[in-house]
Write a structure and sequence with these properties.
Distance between the termini: 23 Å
Order of helices and strands: EEHHEHEEHHEHEHHHHHEHEEHEHH
Largest sheet: 4 strands, antiparallel
Helix content: 40-55%
CATH class of the largest domain: Alpha Beta
CATH superfamily of the largest domain: DNA polymerase, Y-family, little finger domain
Number of strands: 11
Structural class: alpha+beta
């Protein structure tokens, strides 16, 4: 089973059987279906994932207030000092949580238990799916030793190539090198490599860890060169990004446009705002000129828009340079309420209607 977009989309996730064929997350769908042609493909249901993710987060927070979300389906929990509260050690508390999630939500989870975030993450990958794995700091060097350097979070493809060129392929190769040599060769990163190789990691669980960005993107079923159609999709993505920012209670100071050409070349363009925003009409107004400078006949397969440098959202204010800004903001807030009450199509712009009609026409023709 593969969860993802159409043939031009990418894989969001897949079952473990599909992974044995070489399918992986973020892989283009056409490649995934080539590797696993008999796979059942399901369309992503983000609203449902967010809803279930929140329910699981609430169950985690009953164990400890120190919960650091990493993604929609992953989080770190610090259970230090909770033995007296729950009348059981962390291992038992986590087993009970795992069982409760499966019985109440009919979802399975994997748990990694360790004394720091790096080892807990490593342990969580060891016994999937529906696993439970504990890794002590004493056992860490032997457990990590034969594994690729990529097991260390933060060692990406490029750094791996550099390490490989230096004769370092597995963690044991790092363990054999004197820490002074590592520091001399790689600077502060050398000290970090040394500590991770022996299972040491200082970063604490941070329940207030800030989300770095909110964004939305789409891969087209067919390459698009028409500027007007690209702008229509840009508006839809601006709405989605704004909805996610509003839902998270944040607004951003930087608007980023992302494009991918028909031959897979990626482009990003950014504009910094005088004031942060979470409004779709502001995001679109800023991104539209960036798109216009690129939409000069080139065919694009992907379009995305995002907000970064996030801050807590505040009330809409008066913009002396744009007297109608507050009025437009109020209109957008009213539209949000209507869509929340009556459904996503309750209030639509002309651009939104054009895309909906075009999509329905394509489906009818198919």
């Amino acid at each position: 089973m593969i969860v993802g977009g159409g043939k031009r989309g990418v894989v969001s996730t897949c079952c473990y059987v599909a992974r044995t064929y070489g399918v992986r997350s973020a892989m283009p769908m056409y490649k995934a279906l080539k590797l696993c042609p008999d796979a059942v493909v399901l369309t992503p249901r983000m609203d449902l994932y967010v809803k279930e993710g929140r329910r699981i987060r609430e169950m985690m927070q009953r164990l400890t207030p120190l919960v650091e979300p990493v993604s929609i389906d992953e989080a770190y929990l610090d259970l230090s000092g909770t033995e007296a509260l729950h009348g059981a050690p962390p291992a038992i508390s986590l087993m009970k949580l795992q069982k409760a999630i499966e019985s109440e939500l009919r979802l399975t989870i994997s748990v990694g238990l360790a004394s720091n975030k790096f080892l807990a993450k490593t342990a969580s990958e060891a016994d999937k799916p529906r696993g439970f794995f504990a890794l002590s700091i004493d056992d860490a060097p032997a457990y990590l030793g034969p594994r690729s350097v990529r097991v260390i979070g933060g060692v990406g493809a490029q750094f791996e190539k550099k390490l490989n060129a230096d004769g370092i392929r597995i963690v044991r190769d790092i363990q054999k090198i004197d820490v002074k040599t590592l520091v001399k060769r790689y600077g502060e990163t050398g000290l970090w490599l040394h500590n991770c190789a022996f299972g040491r990691h200082a970063r604490q669980v941070d329940p207030y860890s800030e989300r770095k960005s909110v964004s939305s993107e789409t891969t087209f079923n067919e390459d698009i060169a028409d500027r007007r159609l690209l702008e229509d999709f840009l508006w839809r993505l601006s709405e989605r990004t704004a909805d996610r920012a509003k839902h998270s209670g944040v607004e951003g100071r930087v608007v980023t446009l992302k494009l991918k050409t028909h031959d897979f070349k990626s482009l990003t363009r950014r504009v910094s705002l005088n004031e942060p925003t979470q409004l779709a009409q502001v995001i679109f107004r800023v991104a539209k000129p960036m798109l216009a400078r690129e939409a000069l006949g080139e065919r694009y397969r992907l379009l995305g828009i995002g907000l970064s440098e996030l801050v807590d959202a505040k009330a809409d204010g008066i913009d002396l340079a744009d007297p109608t800004a507050l009025k437009r903001a109020k209109a957008e807030r009213a539209s949000d309420k209507a869509r929340g009450k009556f459904g996503g199509h309750a209030v639509m712009t002309g651009r939104g209607v054009r895309i909906k009609i075009a999509s329905e026409k394509k489906n009818h023709e198919a």
